[in-house]
Structure to design on (271 residues):
């Protein structure tokens, strides 16, 4: 399952989405996430699906890369669906057993919530797949730039750097975890069978080496940054300046049109 986690990776392609301004991509992603949670029916989610399919096609990244992320969070999807399955109480009564009552409205809500999470993960993956860590840092720093007017100039750059480093090291930590698990299995550790408590105890020989490895990597990274005279955002300039292009304008128009469509669907289409 760990090798299915590709979130945080950058996949190099020559596509319109790769050439977009990172700040524009961040702002559009935030806008889409807000309206994704404002959508209250499948009609609104259909617009998101159309927009997402268009984005995946333009990014030239295989669809299986996005589906691998969903495979890694199937437990969260199932848990969310089960919780919402018993929440809805309208519609036709489908199952009635003891104190368990499942209605058609509950099934609809369970599918809707799981589908919403899937779209959220795939939209976020589209950003990380098409944006390099350096560009993502510049985009986050530009997005948070208004905080400089309240005396948080250096904090903006530090926060952007921390978020980018965290995303950058997700694939590295996943790879390190898989290596440790394979090493423990080679020593006879049973990580996939047994009772729940036994499987939790079996994770201790994995978590401790992973923690030590993470601390060592953090120390090496900090030392490398000090050797390169890194001292925060003070006096730093960008080698690559952010510029809006026609791709950004077209993408913004498409996203805003989808958001307007969601508002219309919420008021006039009950599905």
């Amino acid at each position: 399952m760990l090798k299915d986690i590709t979130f945080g990776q950058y996949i190099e392609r020559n596509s319109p989405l790769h050439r977009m301004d990172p700040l524009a991509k961040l702002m559009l992603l935030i806008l889409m996430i807000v309206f994704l949670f404002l959508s209250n029916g499948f009609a609104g989610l259909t617009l998101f699906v159309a927009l997402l399919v268009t984005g995946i096609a333009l990014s030239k990244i295989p669809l299986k890369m996005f589906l691998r992320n969903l495979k890694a969070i199937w437990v969260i999807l199932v848990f969310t669906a089960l919780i919402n399955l018993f929440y809805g109480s309208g519609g036709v009564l489908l199952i009635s057993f003891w104190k368990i009552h499942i209605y058609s409205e509950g099934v609809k809500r369970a599918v809707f919530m799981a589908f919403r999470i899937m779209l959220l993960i795939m939209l976020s993956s589209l950003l990380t797949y098409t944006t390099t860590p350096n560009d993502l840092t510049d985009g986050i720093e530009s997005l948070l730039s208004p905080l400089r007017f309240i005396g948080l100039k250096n904090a903006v750059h530090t926060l952007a750097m921390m978020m980018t480093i965290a995303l950058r090291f997700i694939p590295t930590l996943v790879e390190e975890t898989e290596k440790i698990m394979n090493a423990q299995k080679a020593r006879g550790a049973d990580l996939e069978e047994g009772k729940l408590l036994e499987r939790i105890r079996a994770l201790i020989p994995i978590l401790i080496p992973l923690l030590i490895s993470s601390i060592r990597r953090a120390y090496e990274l900090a030392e490398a940054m000090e050797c390169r005279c890194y001292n925060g955002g003070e006096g730093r300039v960008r080698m690559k300046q952010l510029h809006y292009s026609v791709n950004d304008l077209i993408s913004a128009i498409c996203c805003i049109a989808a958001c307007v469509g969601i508002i219309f669907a919420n008021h006039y289409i009950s599905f």
The chain has ten helices and two strands.
